[in-house]
Structure formats: structure tokens, C-alpha cells
Amino acid sequence: MELEDLRNLIRDVYDFPTKGIIFRDLTTMLKNSEALQIMSKELKELYKDKGITKVVGIESRGFIGGSILAYEIGAGFVPARKPGKLPAVTIKKAFAKEYGVDTIELHSDAIDSNDIVVIHDDLLATGGTMFACYELVKSMNPKKIYINFIVELTDLQGRDNLPKDCEVTSLLKY
User: Fold this and answer.
1) Which of 24, 77, 127, 168 could form a disulfide with 161 if both were Cys (CB 3.0 to 4.6 A apart)?
2) 34 annotated active-site
């Protein structure tokens, strides 16, 4: 199995979570052990030599690839969560999504000026969630920030809404 073969394992769910949306369901890929190993290997190859100290995974599916990546490269893992889910002092940012408005939070002490960070999520659609998380991470003044996705929906042009000073990578593009 190769990286491009993972595309065939991703399920399309029509009209979820609202009418007109085609939801790319990565759970059908993740349940395949060989596919999970390939995804893990590809993520590691992207970031193994970049000095990453923290991986921020965006709730909730970003926790999966983000945790794997952090483990593979020997970095710490930081969860970016929905409001009220983190127990200590947080910073937060509201953002528009393709089907509503949401808020993302980080612990206020999760990242410092010595960190090199990868922000990871499973899928890039319009980029609203990632940009909000990027702004939170940037406000903590890390040395460098990278952005990563498993899947990018290119027709939605979400990459255009992400910072130009940041390397953005996706394993698969639709």
C-alpha cells in the first residue's frame, strides 16, 4: 500500500453535518492498520529533522494524527479544544466555519518562546479552524510554526486563508 492508496479508504458522507456538505470521513482509513502505519511514516518523514518540540492537535480528529506525529518525532502534544474542555487557564479564539461559528482554546502555558510547533488537523476545508489555532499559537511567540493536514480539499481554497509565512503541508489533496 502507498500513500495515494489511502484516498480509497476515506469514506464520503453526503449531507453531513448539513445539507450540501460532503464529509470526508477518515475513520474508515484510520481503522486500517497498514494505512495508519503509512500515515504515521509520512508524517514523521515531513517533520523528523525540523526540531519540532510541540505538536498541537485540533479537536477532535486532529488528536489522532497529532499524537502519532508527536510520538514519532519525540515532541510534546498540546490539545486545542472546544470551550470548557481544558481544566486550567486558557486563551481562546472564535472563528467562522463552513457551516457555523465555533471557538478554540489552548492552555495559556502550553507553548513558549523556545518551542518549534506543528499545528495538525485531519482536514483542511476553508481554513477557519486552523487559522484561529495558528493565531493562538503565534500569540505565545514560538520560534517557528508549521501547519499540517492529512487531507486538503483544494476546491475550497482554505490554504489561501492560512498565513503565507508558514509552511503548510497535506498528505492527500482532493
Assistant:
1) 127
2) no
